[in-house]
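Risk register update: the risk of archive-format incompatibility is retired. Evidence:
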Amino acid sequence: MNMRSKLAHFRNQDLVVLVVLALAVLVTRSAQFASVFALPDATPAAFFVSGCQIASAWAMLPLFVVVAIADQLAFANGVSSACMTPAYAFLVPAYAVLWSAGRCSRALSVGARWWPRALIMLAVACVVAWLIASGSFYAFSGRYAQMTAADYFAATLPYLVPHLGWTVLYGTLGLLALRLERRYAAGRHELAAERGS
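Archived output:
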């Protein structure tokens, strides 16, 4: 199956969600907009919300492209390219963990207890993704040969708390927007059915 037929399987709503998530990644990840907005990176939450909304794993591909574009824009605007090491490739499995957690939480999307479960899955996936990204940077960047892994993680652990907090906040807003859109669409369909009767 070629890429065009894969994209044909996306619903219009999925494409809208994907575009909104891609814009969120571009705006928050790229230093091009930092002087205006200075928002923390929404990339982890975007992958999670994408997994919640879009059934096809192909949805990750456009987000990966946007991540690469945003990073290149940031580098072009003076952000240090120190993260461009062999470890950069490990962002793929790190973000795939977040997308997969979103996909798994979609299966739990029935009932009032869904919110806490989804947010716990997001938080756990965020920590796992952070460990993959940070651990690979430690192992493959070539910058920490003199530092033990325990010292490295002790030094970087303070960055996890705000990263986790912003990811859960963005994820909550994204999930809330999806829920509101689904209720609006359901109401629209009910109204159309009533008018058709």
